[in-house]
Write a structure and sequence with these properties.
- It is a single chain.
- The chain has ten helices and ten strands.
- The chain is of the alpha/beta class.
- The protein has two domains: 231 residues, Aldolase class I (TIM Barrel, Alpha-Beta Barrel); 56 residues, Arc Repressor Mutant, subunit A (Orthogonal Bundle), CATH 1.10.10.10.
- The longest helix is centred in the middle third of the chain and has 14 residues.
- It is globular and about 50 Å long.
Amino acid sequence: MNHLFGPVPSRRLGLSLGVDLVPMKTCSLSCIYCQVGETPQTTLERREYVLADEVLDELNRFFAEGRDTDWVTFSGSGEPTLNSRIGDIMAGIKKITDKPICVITNGTLLWGPAVRKDILLADAVMPSLDSAVEETFKRVCRPHADLNVSRIIEGLESFRKEYAGKMWFEIMLVAGINDSERELSALRDAVERIRPDVVQLNTVARPPAEPYAIPLTPERMEEIRQFFGDRAEVIASFKGSAKHSTGSPEDMIREYLKRRPGKLEDLILSLGIDEKEALFVLARLEEHGEAIRKEFFGKRFWEYNTDGRKK
C-alpha cells in the first residue's frame, strides 16, 4: 500500500495506522529534531498531493483483510493539512470504520479558516508548538518564510474555540535550546491562551535531522511537567502489540523504515514479526544498502537509505 503504513507503535495512541497524505518531506517546517530528515524546500501550498480515492481504496482493503488498529492517524512524511482533500478523506473514513481519527499536525496552517474547517471531523487533533519566542521558533523549526509564531498561536487559539474534539498539545523539547525559564514561561502563556485538554511533553527519541538536537534527561522532563501543572504529562512508552500482519516481512520493514527510523522492538510490536525474522531482514537490507544502522544515545536504530547504496 502506497499511502498507509503500520499499524505502528505510538507512545500516545497505542497501535496507530498511519495515513500519509503528502510526498516525503512536504512540510511547512524543517525541524532540527525531525526523524525524517531536513525539508529540502518548505511550502504553504495546499493541493491534492495524494489522491483521496486512492487513500480510501487502500483503507477499504486494509479493513476488508481483517486487520485492526486502535486509531487511524494522519501523519507520516510531512504536514497532512497541506493536502486540500484531507476533509473529504476524513469523511470517507467515517463511512468505512468506526475507529477514531487523529490528526498529528505542526499547527502552522490553522490560521486559515478552511484548514480549521477541514479537520473538525477528527476525534483528536495533536498540534505542536515548540517555542512561543520568535527567534527560538525559527531556530528549532526553521519555518517557511511567511510563517511567524504569533500567527500560529492565534490560529491554534481560534481552532480550540471551534473544535469540539480532543486537543492534545505537544511540545518537543531540545536540550539547551527551548528548555530555559524564558522559553518555558512563554510556552505556558501560550498554553493558557490555547486551552488544550492535555499538554504532552516530548523530547528527541529517534536520530534527528541535526546532531545537536539532543534529548532532555527524564529528571528534567519531570521538572518541566511540574512547571506546566496538572494538565501536563511526559509521553509514556508504547506498551501494545500488533494483532495482525500481512505481506512479506521484508516489504513491511522496508515500508516502515521509509517513513521513520525504527528500533528492533518497534518493528516487532508494530508489524507482528518475530525477532529472529526481523533481524534476518534487517541484515539483508543492510547488505543490499537499503538500510543503515545507527546508534542514538545508546539505542540501536535502523533507517532507510534513500540513496539506495551502502554508506
